[in-house]
Specification:
Length: 217
Amino acid sequence: MSELKGVIFDLDGVLVVTDKFHYQAWKMLADELKMDFDEEINHQLRGVSREESLKRIYRHNKRELPSQEEFTAQMTKKNEKYKELIGTMTSDDILPGSIELLTSLRKEGIKCSIASASKNTPHVLKNTDLDQYVDAVADGNEVTHSKPHPEVFLLAAKKMGLPPEECIGVEDAESGVEAIHNAKMVAVGIGEQGKAAELVVQSVKELSVERFRSLLG
Ligand code: BG6
Ligand code: MG
């Protein structure tokens, strides 16, 4: 059995609340394109890249994809709206228990990092001041493969200087838990979509150094 040396957290839905902003931004675009979009579809886009999300919205509406140029312009429009919305974020948008958990892990010498599909990760970390609580960040700007591909989790482990077997990943998306397992790491799942993980909780508030250690130990 390996000793726990690092914990890799997904960002959206695990440490911060951004679902509502993704929802509002996609909804604005979908309304404009006269496409159907609701909370349920939004829920299915957790952990899914921007490009794949828009493709899924088209598929859900049984619409053919537009030209590449138009498709890119639509992604940009969604992202402009999303950026405007996350511009209002502060440390109040950090989910309860996150700072305490990150602080206690690091106090025990366990490194913490972020593995997020989002290309807006740097803005979110800066606006919420979360960047000071992690040792490394891997995000959508640096990877070519979306979750469930393990790339972003492997990159986060590498940036912490740790082998995957000494790390645990934390995710709220089904594709994210799959990505952690594909990286050969133990997974902690948050909420309904986390059910394939080795440990399932409803929020980071329920996690502790001891609970993480017991998973590798
Ligand atoms: C993930 C979110 O973290 O990032 C998804 O769960 C989002 O909903 C994805 O689509 C990509 O985000 P962005 O900021 O690059 O459009
Ligand atoms: Mg997430």
